[in-house]
Write a structure and sequence with these properties.
Length: about 475
């Protein structure tokens, strides 16, 4: 698996890039971290990066750019309409994703907005492998409903199943029969299902989904935001594809979907997004919405410089040395932590390392947001900012009661090509300390809750003075150290 064979060392992943521009980081003392997380309402989204050492909140818009991307940005053809930079991007989409038509958007959720507005009628169902927060919000906004048809292994957090992102095709057939095809807007497949630990689907599974879609004349919409890594894991884990190139695998995946959309903040660059298809009718339905909501068709609401970076980034997706950096570093982190007994989501996925907060904090009831509490506690003891992916990121039902999330995860995202192995080891060391002191972590409750996507701006407070006690224990164990 590792492209390098070691002499005596245990295998570890190696960077196939060098740092040429660096940005200084600060690690503030634990007392400041305690004050900062209190001010942030125990919501890591509301921390200032002034107080953050390693920012593992997300891989969205925080990946390192390549020298070739920066060089291309300098050559941007800044024009409102007809920019040659867009022609380069269109060509990259055609060559890498194998789709003829392309509509640029300012980010992934904007693509979701346009697809949902065009393809969903009120009351229609969207079956999918799993939801993503913004996709769910846009489907609901236009009166649609989601149906999640994950395979049985998906929510078994410690598992050896290589493709936990697979849809259950029996459930899919049953759902189509049950609702009847005209009440289904489309089938949504998400590459590397973000919210359950970046778990991929297999090409075999997607091929079956295509067969079912054809039988009922349904469209498949592919969320390709994490497609590069999903393709890499297909190469690693699906025997039939291990000798194929990433480019072949990517095209095999996209050729099975009618519409491919993505967030270029993850796939290819640090800004932008878009919708690609070979279906001219659907393209023509969506096209007028781009100037209305995004910007003219050749820039889609982002700067032309970023259009250039996306084009180069799409080609870089074909390079295994580039794509493997993220899954390889994540595997190092997940395997290392699992080895210490820390409950991690396995097998290692993409996007980041995911900690099973319900097991880590088994003494905290789900109603007190164990994943949110763990994210705050981990920041407190390390300066590392992760993201809650559990019930805080969920929604309430019509009675105003919390809908408990299927899984409570602390996500430690690894933006692509940003962190060094020593920084990852530091995060692992502090996570081990926190695991040994986990009984000190307590629950949280909301003090302010926005009506939609509450996890972004909501505020919480601890149910006791546990953060102070945890900080005191840190001081006791680490002395004057940061
Ligand atoms: C990030 C993401 C989105 C939304 O993209 P933005 O650019 O953040 O709006 C949609 N789907 C998946 C799978 C994502 O990871």
């Amino acid at each position: 698996m590792n492209p390098i064979t070691f002499y005596r060392s245990e295998p570890f992943p190696i960077e196939f890039h060098k740092a040429r521009i660096v940005q200084k980081l600060h690690l503030v003392p634990v007392e400041r971290r305690l004050a900062a997380i209190c001010q942030a309402g125990f919501n890591t989204f509301k921390l200032s990066t002034r107080d953050v050492f390693l920012d593992m909140l997300t891989d969205s818009g925080t990946n390192a750019m390549s020298d070739n991307q920066l060089a291309a940005m300098m050559q941007a053809d800044d024009a409102y309409a007809g920019s040659q930079s867009f022609e380069k991007l269109l060509k990259a989409v055609q060559e890498v994703l194998g789709k003829t038509f392309f509509l640029p958007t300012h980010q992934g959720r904007a693509a979701e907005h346009i697809i949902c507005k065009t393809l969903i009628k009120p009351g229609q169902i969207v079956p999918m492998n799993y939801h993503f927060t913004t996709a769910l919000a846009h489907i609901t906004e236009v009166g649609g409903h989601i149906e999640e048809l994950l395979c049985d292994h998906a929510l078994i957090l410690q598992s050896a199943h290589p493709f936990k992102g697979n849809i259950d095709t029996d459930k899919l057939e049953h759902s189509i029969q049950h609702h009847s095809p005209e009440n289904i807007a489309f089938i949504r497949m998400e590459a590397s299902t973000n919210l359950i630990g970046g778990q991929p689907f297999s090409l075999e599974n997607l091929t079956q989904v295509r067969r079912i879609a054809n039988q009922h004349d349904l469209k498949i919409v592919l969320d390709a935001s994490l497609l590069g890594e999903n393709a890499f894991l297909i190469q690693q884990r699906e025997a039939a594809w291990q000798h194929k190139s990433l480019g072949d695998i990517i095209q095999a995946v996209t050729s099975l979907a009618d519409i491919v959309y993505f967030s270029a903040r993850k796939l290819s660059s640090s800004r932008g997004g878009g919708i690609a298809t070979n279906d001219k009718d659907t393209y023509l339905k969506m096209e007028p919405l781009i100037p209305l909501y995004e910007g003219f068709l050749t820039y889609g609401g982002i700067s032309v410089k970023e259009i250039e970076a996306m084009a180069v980034g799409l080609y870089e997706t074909l390079d295994p040395d580039n794509i493997r950096q993220n899954p390889d570093f994540i595997a190092f982190m997940v395997n290392g932590c699992s080895h210490k007994g820390i409950p991690m989501v396995t097998p290692p996925g993409v996007l980041g390392a995911h900690v099973d907060a319900m097991t880590f904090c088994e003494h905290i009831p789900q109603s007190q947001y164990p994943a949110g509490a763990l994210a705050s506690a981990f920041y407190l003891c390390s300066g590392v900012r992760g993201m809650e992916r559990g019930s805080v990121s969920s929604v309430r039902d019509e009675n105003g009661d919390d809908i408990p999330a299927d899984v409570e995860l602390l996500r430690l995202a690894l933006p692509r090509r940003v962190f060094t192995l020593s920084q990852i080891k530091y995060a692992m060391d502090r996570l081990e300390w926190l695991f040994d002191n986990r009984h000190l972590i307590g629950g949280l409750r909301f003090t302010y809750e926005p009506p939609v996507l509450r996890f972004f701006m909501g505020s919480l407070e601890p149910v006791s003075d546990w953060p102070q006690k945890l900080a005191a224990r840190f001081r006791k164990d680490f002395g004057n150290s940061l």
